[in-house]
Amino acid sequence: MVSTALYISPPEQLRDRLVARVRTRSLDAALANGTPPETDAALAVRARRLTNLPARRKLALAIRHVVRDAGGAGARSHVRVSPVSDRVSAASRELRMLAEKLAEPAPTRARGVAQAHLLLTDGTGPLYNPRSEGSVRDRAASAVSNLSLGS
Fold first, then answer.
1. Within a domain: 1
2. I need a surface site. Which of 31, 50, 141, 144 has the fewest CB within 10 A?
3. Domain extent for 139
4. Distance CA 88, CA 101 (A)
């Protein structure tokens, strides 16, 4: 018989909150690769932070800005790395869908949110690095498919 009970995590400990803040990148990578949040207390803390609605809506807004700015001829910043506009344009449909799904109030899986977060924040990834072998379209589509609790 398969248990249908929801996993209820223990209260957050200070140590776990600190680890979740310091090891964000590695915890996001673990979540994005499918590691269940309940396997580690810091991973569970990070998953909760990623999946809360305000954090997801902030991520969705950032993705919308990337899509909007890729089509513009505005001045490029010399302070930050800009997305590769050709890749953004080619994946604009998938990126818009990802932003839409992230902003919905429905519960989501941490895996998809972590994938979206890494896509947006990894300067060595396909969104920012023209030499990256990855595909923005594929990564955005994967994040969308991994957001749903039914997937």
1. no
2. 141
3. 14-71+80-145
4. 18
Q: How many domains does the chain have?
A: 1
Tokens matching residue 46 = 């990070």
With beta carbons less than 8 A apart as the criterion, state whether 37 and 44 touch: yes
Hey, what are 104's tokens?
Answer: 């919905």
Model confidence pLDDT, tens digit, residues 116-128: 999 999 999 999 9
Residue with tokens 């001045």: 75
Look at the block and give the residue holding tokens 């909760």: 48
Nearest residue to 70 (alpha-carbon basis) of 55, 87, 52, 47? 87
- Return the HEC string of the chain: CCCCCCCCCCCCCHHHHHHHHHCHHHHHHHHHCCCCHHHCHHHHHHHHHHHCHHHHHHHHHHHHHHHHHHHCCCCCCCCCCCCCHHHHHHCHHHHHHHHHHHHCCCCCCHHHHHHHHHHHHCCCCCCCCCCCCCCHHHHHHHHHHCCCCCC
Q: What is the pTM of this model?
A: 0.84
